[in-house]
Amino acid sequence: MEFFGKATSFPFMSTRKLWYGLSLALMVLSIGSFAMRGLNLAVDFTGGVQVQARFAGTANLDALRAGLESGGFHEAQVQVLGSSREAAIRLPPQKDLSGDAVRTRVEGVLHAIDPAAEVTSLDVVGSQVGDELKSGAVWALVATLFLIFCYIALRFHTWRLSVGAILAVLHDPILVLGAFSLWQTSFDLPVVSAMLAVIGYSLNDTVVVFDRIRERFEASRRLEPVVVLDQSINQTLSRTIMTKVVTLIVVVALYVLGGAALKGFSEALIIGILAGTYSSIYVSSAIALDCGLKAEHLLPTALKKPVDDLP
Question: Exposed/middle/buried for 267, CB within 10 Å: 0-12, 13-18, 19+?
Fold first, then answer.
């Protein structure tokens, strides 16, 4: 099954410098926003109290915010969760209150708005646990990148493809972090899992392209590397577009219909999939080309039989 009716022959490598510029600009913007604004870290990382509440009718979020403020819960964050009858409440750490005391006071606020309202769940995360989760997330990303470098280098026998793959893999999560920093979307553990999924998804697409590059070099070692890369990308383009479109349909449905609980997770996947679509083409392959990739770097040199001693 092919997305295009006929074989394509787009000159991808001839425009790689334009895409280098776009990627560089987006990464500078992302890093700058991250440095200046930071991330809107969720309770998972900062510590605090996460409450889910259900109302008999439509939740009045404005009244709920005002009630929490007057009840002593300052800087509370309130949003719809799943349906209009459910609300998610995120409270800063309550050092002087136990979990049961927080539940009692929150229920008092809820009942003042809607007597039939109830707390369906309440989770307390300490600041120490949040710091441990933050450290664990960073180390998970570092370990992933290191293992990817080793995997590509061993599979394709050249560091040139490894460098291209690592830069492409770094490119995608940096853009995700930049978008979350710019939009101040809540950053929690599901978002971290989405970023790891994006890394794996982007790597899979990159490996498919790299495999086709090796096949094209095997078929004709005398072709110029830029021609081989263009042919390889064009031959895998239908697969790339079809897999990304099908995945995006599901993820966009999660974003639209999944409610607040899945918003950050699906948003990270959408950004990562879009960024990974062109990074596997214009970042990983193009950087390998500019690092001097040639056929002999991927294929063993054929042994020549000695002929000088023959009569």
Answer: buried
Query: Tokens 């509370």 sit at which residue?
Result: 76
**Higher-scoring residue by pLDDT: 180, 260:** 180
Q: List the structure tokens of 274.
A: 């879009």
User: 0.85 cut: is pTM over it?
Assistant: no
Residue 78 and residue 61 in contact, taking contact as beta carbons nearer than 8 Å = yes
142: left (phi over 0), alpha (psi -120 to 50) or beta: alpha
Closest to 191 measured CA to CA, from 269, 81, 259: 269
Buried (b) or exposed (e) across 233-244, using 16+ Cβ within 10 A? bbbbbebbeebb
Amino acid at the residue 172: D
Residues 45, 51: Cα–Cα separation, whole Å: 16
Q: How large a percentage of the chain has pLDDT more than 70?
A: 90
Report residue 53 as tokens.
């509440």
Backbone angles phi, psi at 79, to 5 degrees: -155, 160
Pairing of strands 48-54, 77-81: unpaired
Is the Cβ–Cβ distance between 77 and 40 less than 8 Å? Answer: no
CA distance 274 to 279: 9
Phi, psi of 200 (to 5 degrees): -65, -40
Q: Note whether 29 and 171 are within 8 A (CB).
A: no
Selected residue with higher pLDDT from 159 and 86 = 86
Mean pLDDT of 220-245: 86
Enumerate residues 6+ apart whose C-beta is below 8 A from 308: none
Question: How far is Cα 83 from Cα 274, in angstroms, rounded to an integer?
Answer: 28
Largest CA distance in the chain: 106
Both tokens of 19, joined, read 């895409």
Identify the pLDDT of residue 31. 92
| Residue 99 near residue 122 (C-beta atoms within 8 A) | yes
Strand residues in the chain grouped as ranges (E): 40-41, 48-54, 77-81, 83-91, 118-125, 186-187
